[in-house]
Amino acid sequence: CILALLNGWFQGMGYPPYAKNMVTWFSRSERGAWWSWWNVSHNLGGGIIAPLATLGIYLFGTWHSIFFFPALISIVLAVVTFFLLKDTPQSCGLPPIEEYKHETVATEVKDENKTTFKEIFYKY
Protein backbone atom coordinates (compact mmCIF):
# COMPACT_ATOMS: atom_id res chain seq x y z
CA CYS A 1 0.00 0.00 0.00
CA ILE A 2 2.80 2.41 0.90
CA LEU A 3 4.69 1.65 -2.32
CA ALA A 4 1.57 2.25 -4.40
CA LEU A 5 1.04 5.55 -2.59
CA LEU A 6 4.64 6.63 -3.21
CA ASN A 7 4.42 5.52 -6.84
CA GLY A 8 1.33 7.66 -7.41
CA TRP A 9 2.85 10.57 -5.50
CA PHE A 10 6.01 10.67 -7.61
CA GLN A 11 4.24 10.01 -10.91
CA GLY A 12 1.81 12.81 -10.13
CA MET A 13 4.72 15.23 -9.93
CA GLY A 14 5.45 14.74 -13.63
CA TYR A 15 2.44 16.54 -15.03
CA PRO A 16 2.85 20.13 -13.73
CA PRO A 17 6.38 20.67 -15.11
CA TYR A 18 5.38 19.12 -18.41
CA ALA A 19 2.31 21.35 -18.66
CA LYS A 20 4.48 24.40 -17.97
CA ASN A 21 6.92 23.31 -20.67
CA MET A 22 4.13 22.81 -23.20
CA VAL A 23 2.70 26.27 -22.57
CA THR A 24 6.15 27.85 -22.76
CA TRP A 25 7.41 26.15 -25.91
CA PHE A 26 4.28 25.78 -28.07
CA SER A 27 1.74 28.33 -29.26
CA ARG A 28 -1.98 27.99 -28.63
CA SER A 29 -2.57 26.72 -32.17
CA GLU A 30 0.04 23.96 -31.77
CA ARG A 31 -0.74 22.75 -28.26
CA GLY A 32 -3.56 20.38 -29.19
CA ALA A 33 -1.34 18.34 -31.48
CA TRP A 34 1.53 18.22 -28.98
CA TRP A 35 -0.77 17.33 -26.08
CA SER A 36 -2.11 14.42 -28.12
CA TRP A 37 1.42 13.18 -28.82
CA TRP A 38 2.18 13.42 -25.12
CA ASN A 39 -0.92 11.36 -24.28
CA VAL A 40 -0.03 8.76 -26.92
CA SER A 41 3.47 8.49 -25.46
CA HIS A 42 2.03 6.99 -22.26
CA ASN A 43 0.43 4.19 -24.26
CA LEU A 44 3.56 3.66 -26.34
CA GLY A 45 5.67 3.50 -23.18
CA GLY A 46 3.36 0.89 -21.68
CA GLY A 47 3.36 -1.10 -24.91
CA ILE A 48 7.10 -1.07 -25.44
CA ILE A 49 7.99 -2.36 -21.98
CA ALA A 50 7.35 -6.04 -22.83
CA PRO A 51 9.64 -6.04 -25.90
CA LEU A 52 12.30 -4.17 -23.88
CA ALA A 53 12.08 -6.71 -21.07
CA THR A 54 12.39 -9.52 -23.60
CA LEU A 55 15.40 -7.82 -25.17
CA GLY A 56 16.93 -7.52 -21.71
CA ILE A 57 16.53 -11.25 -21.12
CA TYR A 58 18.10 -11.94 -24.52
CA LEU A 59 21.06 -9.59 -23.95
CA PHE A 60 21.83 -10.43 -20.32
CA GLY A 61 20.59 -14.02 -20.13
CA THR A 62 18.71 -13.66 -16.86
CA TRP A 63 15.14 -12.95 -15.92
CA HIS A 64 16.38 -10.29 -13.48
CA SER A 65 17.07 -8.06 -16.46
CA ILE A 66 13.34 -7.45 -16.92
CA PHE A 67 13.71 -5.09 -13.97
CA PHE A 68 17.06 -3.41 -14.50
CA PHE A 69 17.22 -3.13 -18.31
CA PRO A 70 14.12 -0.90 -18.75
CA ALA A 71 15.20 1.04 -15.64
CA LEU A 72 18.65 1.57 -17.15
CA ILE A 73 17.09 2.89 -20.36
CA SER A 74 14.87 5.23 -18.32
CA ILE A 75 17.85 6.55 -16.37
CA VAL A 76 19.81 7.23 -19.56
CA LEU A 77 16.84 9.06 -21.10
CA ALA A 78 16.35 11.07 -17.89
CA VAL A 79 20.00 12.19 -17.94
CA VAL A 80 19.79 13.14 -21.62
CA THR A 81 16.58 15.08 -20.96
CA PHE A 82 18.14 16.82 -17.97
CA PHE A 83 20.95 18.20 -20.10
CA LEU A 84 19.00 18.96 -23.30
CA LEU A 85 15.69 20.32 -22.03
CA LYS A 86 15.62 24.08 -21.58
CA ASP A 87 13.24 26.02 -19.37
CA THR A 88 12.05 28.63 -21.87
CA PRO A 89 12.85 29.69 -25.43
CA GLN A 90 14.34 32.86 -23.96
CA SER A 91 16.93 30.78 -22.05
CA CYS A 92 18.21 29.62 -25.46
CA GLY A 93 18.29 33.13 -26.91
CA LEU A 94 15.01 32.67 -28.79
CA PRO A 95 12.01 35.01 -28.66
CA PRO A 96 8.87 34.05 -26.70
CA ILE A 97 6.67 31.65 -28.64
CA GLU A 98 3.84 34.17 -28.99
CA GLU A 99 6.23 36.66 -30.57
CA TYR A 100 7.79 34.01 -32.83
CA LYS A 101 4.42 32.72 -34.06
CA HIS A 102 2.92 36.23 -34.23
CA GLU A 103 0.05 35.28 -31.95
CA THR A 104 -1.59 37.57 -29.47
CA VAL A 105 -1.84 36.52 -25.86
CA ALA A 106 -5.44 36.13 -24.77
CA THR A 107 -6.36 38.33 -21.85
CA GLU A 108 -8.40 37.08 -18.96
CA VAL A 109 -12.05 38.03 -18.93
CA LYS A 110 -13.27 38.50 -15.41
CA ASP A 111 -16.74 37.19 -14.82
CA GLU A 112 -18.89 39.51 -12.76
CA ASN A 113 -21.19 36.66 -11.75
CA LYS A 114 -18.76 34.22 -10.21
CA THR A 115 -20.15 30.79 -9.57
CA THR A 116 -19.32 29.36 -6.18
CA PHE A 117 -17.87 25.91 -5.65
CA LYS A 118 -21.06 24.82 -3.92
CA GLU A 119 -23.16 25.88 -6.92
CA ILE A 120 -20.90 24.05 -9.34
CA PHE A 121 -20.80 20.93 -7.17
CA TYR A 122 -24.54 20.67 -6.57
CA LYS A 123 -26.00 22.26 -9.71
CA TYR A 124 -23.81 20.75 -12.40
UniProtKB/TrEMBL annotation:
GO terms, biological process: phosphate ion transmembrane transport
Provide the transmembrane region boundaries.
37-60, 66-85
Membrane topology value:
Multi-pass membrane protein
Q: Which Pfam families match?
A: MFS_1
Localization of this protein: Endomembrane system
Provide the Major facilitator superfamily (MFS) profile domain boundaries.
Answer: 1-124
Q: What InterPro entries does the annotation carry? A: MFS, MFS_dom, MFS_trans_sf, OPA_Antiporter
A Gene Ontology molecular function term of the record: glucose 6-phosphate:phosphate antiporter activity
Residues annotated as coiled-coil are none
**Keyword set, alphabetical order:** Membrane, Transmembrane, Transmembrane helix
The GO cellular component terms are:
endomembrane system; plasma membrane
Q: What is this protein called?
A: Glycerol-3-phosphate transporter
